[in-house]
Write a structure and sequence with these properties.
Number of strands: 2
Strand content: 5-15%
Number of helices: 7
Largest sheet: 2 strands, antiparallel
Strand order of the largest sheet: 1-2
Distance between the termini: 61 Å
Structural class: mainly alpha
Shape: elongated
Length: about 160
């Protein structure tokens, strides 16, 4: 790791830029991918697992429908779980892209675009309530009961 100083005569500034070895850059990128992909894969595959196991359980207890019909029924019933997993992936992509960019940019060169991208990267954590709770009937019902009980306590 080493640092360089660059004189920027247009903006009358001096930039300090840190350079990392190839190993540290590769390690950083690997850790970023692991912290991005592993939770998202666990989330998605657990949703698929829940759907398949529920369909299998309903198939053994209810012999009127085939496993494929039960699977389609469970997919329709648990659609919010799959949609929320996919939404989290889509909303987390800007954070992944920004964290993997290693190039420098001039501070006056399209700062609004980078600022918007930076704030978009926080959307998944800010929208967890809307993504998971409000899209699921069961979770939404429990959420409403919790809110009602909180208001009853205040009165």
């Amino acid at each position: 790791m080493y640092r360089d100083l660059y004189d920027d005569y247009e903006e009358n500034r001096i930039w300090c830029v840190t350079h990392y070895s190839k190993f540290i850059q590769t390690y950083n990128s690997t850790i970023i991918f692991i912290h991005f992909l592993i939770p998202l894969l666990i989330n998605f595959f657990s949703a698929v697992f829940i759907i398949i196991m529920t369909a299998r359980q309903h198939n053994t207890s209810n012999s009127k429908l085939t496993f494929y019909q039960q699977l389609i029924k469970q997919l329709k019933e648990h659609k919010p779980i799959l949609i929320s997993s996919i939404l989290v992936v889509i909303l987390s992509l800007p954070r992944l892209i920004i964290s993997l960019l290693t190039t420098c940019m001039k501070s006056s060169s399209k700062p609004l675009l980078y600022l918007i991208g930076y704030f978009i990267s926080f959307l998944p954590s800010m929208l967890m309530l809307f993504i998971f709770v409000l899209t699921s009937d069961l979770y939404f019902k429990q959420f409403k009961e919790s809110i009602k009980s909180c208001f009853k306590r205040r009165q």
